[in-house]
Fold:
Amino acid sequence: MIIGSIACLEIKNILSSIITIGVVGLGLSLAFLFLGAPDLALVQFVFEILCVIILIRAFAKRSIEVRALRRDVPETIIAIVILASIFVLSIFAFKDLPSFGKPIVRVAERYLAQAGVETGSQNIVTAVILNYRVYDTLGEVTVLFTAILGAVTILRKTGRKKRHAE
Amino acid sequence: MILYIMCFFLFLVGVYGAITKRDLIKIILAIGIMGYSVNLFLVLLAYRTGALVPILKKGLNIPASMMVDPIPQALVLTSIVIELGITALMAALAIRIYQKYGTFDITKIRRLQG
Structure:
């Protein structure tokens, strides 16, 4: 996935770049499947397909322009140096986390024990989304609605008035 | 721990793309990569070695300590859907900018201001 994402950023052609990010997302979906999250794998799969479709639809035709984007070598080097130092520092931070495979579950233990009885749902992830944290889901739907509303508003051909135009 | 570090490296790849690329589409993709890595990190935190999927089956009593933590999964589910909305919104903005300036290069867009 790392290789895929680096390739995605470095490839010149925009169409293959978008397809590469699709590959990265599908790899993420597989990773979710192996990490015991089939719901997430399904959602990620659908999300990835939608994302690639949206991006290709949006950008494939428009990227025919010649891309002679010269890159600033000093800027790139400075960015890489700073990010590398952040990376090295982060290794110390990750030492404090619980090691992989042994998570700290306190709230979830109660959910796991009680969810079947309290909600009647067989899938505990569904129980958490739609019962214990239903306000989160409401907020999520609101955010999604707002984002799509914004996209539609931005893409609308005719603006109402001049001051709303941009 | 090596997995966490690789995940963080993926995040840094996203940050690198977002701050050094000049192409709006590349920046959108880089932000997408950052989102992937954060989701992956949360799910990695929730994983328990040898644990089962948090789905109850009738007549099969799995002890609670044998299941993956469901809460991060639920929240990541929310996050993935929101990411889709964000991507669509950014794509719409980029198309609009392209219609106005005729380019995706952010340095040129800055020069054409006004």
